[in-house]
Amino acid sequence: MPSTEPFLTKLGIYRDLCLQSIVDFIPDREPKKYLYDLVTVYPSRGGKGFRPGLCMAACNIFGGTTADAMNSAMALELFHNAFLVHDDIEDESDDRRGSPTMHAAHGVGIAINVGDAMNVLSIKPLMNNIFSLGPNLTWQIFSEIEHMVLESVEGQAMELGWRRDNSCNLEDDDYMRMILKKTCWYTCMHPIRIGALIGSRGNVNPSTFDRFGYYLGAAFQIQDDLLNLIGDEKKYGKEICGDVLEGKRTLMLIHLLNSCTSKEKERIQRYLSKDRKARTPRDVEWVMKMMRKYDCIAYGRKNAQNLAGAALKEFYTAFGHMPDSEDKEFIESMILYMIERDY
Amino acid sequence: MPAKTKGQTEQPQNAAKQKATPPSGINIEGLGNIVDNASKIVLKAANILEEEIARGIVTAKQIEGKMTDVQKLHGGNKDELFVRFRKDAHDIIDLLIDFTAITLKGVGSLSSRIINIKQGTTTDTTGDSQQIPLIQAPKDLKAGEVLEVPITLENDSKTDVKSIEFLNTALIDAANNQIAADAISYDPNPLKLQPGASGNVKIAIKVPQNAKPGSYTCFIEGRNMTNLKATLLVKVI
């Protein structure tokens, strides 16, 4: 297993290339203060750039170039950041990558509009694919994106619905289905599928990468949820235990609800039924104490590791036959990074 | 449904694959000795992925009949595509339908491993061997009702005898209501097919008393068979 340092270097290169293309692409016209200047705020905050990185690397592995994948990578990154802006409103989050969220800094109305703009702006690069990739592949990538966006909003709807209805009888299966839809399709599965389709000029079966992408994305999401509970706030860039405060149904919370006594479960349910503003630091501290009591952190960590192990196995199935290259090593290294990362 | 085996994914040369795959149980730094340790969560994930993909195929198939001009677009030129992008709102509907058609094609190409399947006396009408066949229950069912759906399978192989042991996932609808996998049974199971021969199997669907109304789908496959997959659609009213 390669180390994560060259991986981070390459990830940074792909991220910066994509960011520069996005900055160059944003219309240089008014209204800047209330719209176009804000469109690059989230992408410029040092996001990791997994999606463009995976898309460009997969494209290179299958015979294409970074430039071939750039339009699609830009669209993925713009969609991702649009999701983040809107998610932060839906989740009532205060911090994003170490700074106030878009709505906290500029108001809900402006933030919703900036998110809408990013969604719309992502369409043009996909249209521009026609010049380099031709109509058939352009169309196929549109269909990939359509599926990706639909799955993501369905996954988000599931999670928001659980919180609104204070669902407390969830199983691991429910969580795994929700993150497949909300996170995995758009974080890993579609970026790889799209990159490989472009690189091979439509000559690979994109479903070959689904299992790898799902396991990788699931390991990433569980690790993200773990960091929210026990990470270093400065490195992680979000409020620690923010998920507990938001009542987010993580694998660890679901494990707690299924492990604790009925009396403890009643207390957790009461806590989760409160408005976010009514939840106190003391409440959060008690939930964390319960998570420690029932080894929820270890449970999450073990499952993230198992999923990463499964992702590694699937990596050899999906990519093993391709010639060795920096990009192949890059994707392999991402597996270890997903469960070792501390931000 | 059990996790799909490695051999089921479309894969390249075995020799290259063997070279690239690490030995079983290898201890890889950072991941520990977990590479070959199947865990519950991984098996769950594999099943969920199959179910979700199967559901996507059914959704796409349900509107397949509405496709009108997909072929025209597939063979079209850049100018035509741009005109399509720029036309008025009426065309947006066409665009959405076209997207779905290609999604169907993409998802259908999950499987280039269909052996001919007939429902009753009707041959699969898609005419596209890249798509996973849809077996639709011929009538809507009520809770507690039982229905048998006869299926004909043909063994395309000229040399191999096929013994097909049928497996299926739980039935699930759009609202995530579920009917347990054992509500479906097969007679005979396994089904033995001589080379070039066809045979019948009855798929029995027993809808539980407490089943909620909805359009339920599940994924059917043959154990250890890479070339037999189908989606079953059952409407409970």
Question: What are the SSEs and their pairings?
Answer:
The complex is a heterodimer of chains A (343) and B (237).
Chain A (H helix, E strand, L loop, with lengths): L4 H21 L6 H8 L10 H12 L4 H25 L4 E2 L2 E2 L1 H5 L1 H14 L1 H42 L7 H28 L10 H21 L2 H4 L5 H5 L4 H9 L2 H12 L7 H13 L2 H24 L6 H15 L3
Antiparallel strand pairs in A: 1-2
Chain B lengths: L13 H7 L19 H23 L7 H5 L3 H9 L2 H20 L8 E3 L2 E2 L10 E3 L9 E9 L7 E3 L1 E3 L2 E2 L5 E2 L4 E4 L3 E3 L4 E9 L7 E9 L6 E8 L1
Parallel strand pairs in B: 3-13
Antiparallel strand pairs in B: 1-2, 1-4, 4-11, 5-10, 6-12, 7-8, 9-11, 12-13
Structure, described:
- The complex is a heterodimer of chains A (343) and B (237).
- Chain A is an all-alpha fold and 343 residues long.
- In chain A, 75% of the residues lie in helices and 1% in strands.
- Chain A has a two-stranded antiparallel sheet.
- The two termini of chain A are 21 Å apart.
- The model of chain A has no long low-confidence stretch (mean pLDDT 92).
- Chain B is an alpha+beta fold and 237 residues long.
- Chain B has helices at 14-20, 40-62, 70-74, 78-86, 89-108; strands at 117-119, 122-123, 134-136, 146-154, 162-164, 166-168, 171-172, 178-179, 184-187, 191-193, 198-206, 214-222, 229-236.
- In chain B, strand 7 and strand 8 (178-179) form a beta hairpin.
- The chains are: A mainly alpha (343), B alpha+beta (237).
- Chains A and B meet through helix 7, helix 8, helix 9, helix 15 and helix 16 of A and helix 1, helix 2, helix 4 and helix 5 of B.
List the defining traits of the structure above.
heterodimer, A: 343 residues, two-stranded antiparallel sheet, B: 237 residues, alpha+beta, five-stranded antiparallel sheet, globular, disordered N terminus
Gist?
With 343 residues, chain A is mainly α.
Subunit organisation of the chains: heterodimer
Query: Which strand order do you get reading across the main beta sheet of chain B?
Result: 2-1-4-11-9
Order of helices and strands of chain B, N to C? Answer: HHHHHEEEEEEEEEEEEE
Q: Indicate the proportion of strand residues of chain A.
A: under 5%
Task: Name the chain pair with the biggest interface and residue counts per chain.
Answer: A-B, 50 and 56 residues
Strand order in space, largest sheet of chain A: 1-2
Number of helices of chain B: 5
The counted number of beta strands of chain B is: 13
Q: Tell me the distance between the termini of chain A.
A: 21 Å
Approximately how much helix is present in the residues of chain A? Answer: over 70%
Structural class of chain B: alpha+beta
